[in-house]
Amino acid sequence: MSSQTPSASPAYVDAPTQPETRGIEVVKPSERHGRARDLFGVWAAPNVSVLNFTIGATMILLGLEIWQAVAVIVAANLLWVFPGLVAIAGPAAGTSGSVISRAMYGVLGNKVIIAFTGWLISAVFLALNWLASSFMGADLLAQWGFDDPVLVPILVTLVVSAITVLVAVYGHALIIKSYTAISIGLAVVFLAVTAFALPTVDWGYRAAEPLTGVPLWSAITIGFTIIASTPLSYINSPDIARYLPRDTKPSHIIAATALGGALPGIFFTVVGALIVTGLTGEQLDAGIESAILGLLPSWLGPLLVLGVIVNTIALNGMTTYTSSMALQSVGVPIRRIPSAIVIGVLGTGLTLYLVMSTSLLDAVNLMLQFLVIVSGPAMAIFSTDIVLRRNRYDAVDLFDQERGGRFWYTGGWSLPGMTAVVVGGIATAVCLSTEVWTGPVSEAMGFVDLSVPAGMIVAALVYLGLSKTRLGRFAEASVVSSTRPATAGADAVAAGSAAGSGEASA
Description:
This protein has 26 helices and no strands. It is an all-alpha fold. It has a domain at 29-371: Hydantoin permease (Orthogonal Bundle). The longest helix has 37 residues, at 107-143. The radius of gyration is 23 Å and the shape is globular.
């Protein structure tokens, strides 16, 4: 067993009024609490977002009719079932998803995957979300006489990022306790915006040149990929669910997570698609957010801006929280709270740079466009592993990083997992269609974008096939796992297990 597993079990408190000191350490059965339905508000709060308006408008600007846009929006949001599915691994193992994925990629391979998907990409997401709220907050302050084009966005960024990091520091209990109320408050504001914007909708809208044939399928599939990138990016869902009792019904976890993300996503994205039909070219030139602000009464505009900022804090607070554990899982000797602060500082620094520069913004946006190349296959592999193992994950084995451990595989690398994520990524890339990159398969099909289904299906099939061979040693692992009591891992590792960040918890 790894020497990083301490014999003592420090006391951890999961309360909204106290900072959460537990990181990737296992949650003991005696410390489990909560209900699956609590997850609904947690996932709704980040997804009651002005970004949905923008994405909905994009569907119409791609050339789709209203009913076609609605169909694409609903279909793409069905992928929220995948964050719901991987969330059930949290209560099963009692630890972070960035630790559970050692079962898929091996002890060393997992460090590479998590280093990229777990916190590097997260820092970029933090920056982009903070950037949007900073500029909208600065625009509001400019109306009140604070119009310094540099100082004001910087100050707004610092305030918003500080609150965000504070949410991440207080952690799980604060997120569970407050996000339901936040989602209700945001829903009220966004429904009020909807009420004032809908009268401008052109219900008889028809595209100037209706799409047919291959161009139509190109627009449909590109729109699907844009929307699908959001649910596929939430591979961190086990981190939020890990405190639930192990006997919580998986179906309830899946439903609460998936519906929490999908329902506001579908509704407000459809609203965005409807609103854009009544806007003029001049209004759109200023951006969909500014155009919507122009439709609102003077008292509602500031509330929308405040809602955007609160939504950003909710989204980035969760991102910072889960990223702090990802940093631990790759082996950085740091406790969770300092880790959250480090992530916040990195994101803040990048945001401030973006405030002063436009060239980097283009580069970051390009990076996010290609995120689906990693997120789609990774989500498919995680989901496939849960099905193959029947959601049986043993904490003792997950935290055993010694050579010869069950998840050491081949020199610390799981060849099935690493091969699947690479091959799946290639399949995604060759089927992807963006403004800066068109894969050869997509180009041959007339710019039809099948990147999401192609990447996920290929990754799942490769992982499934190789895991059944000696490369994966999957059969042996499944037998051992099925003979060990469900709570053995949590009892043995207890709450003080800090494998992957042993020095930090020593």
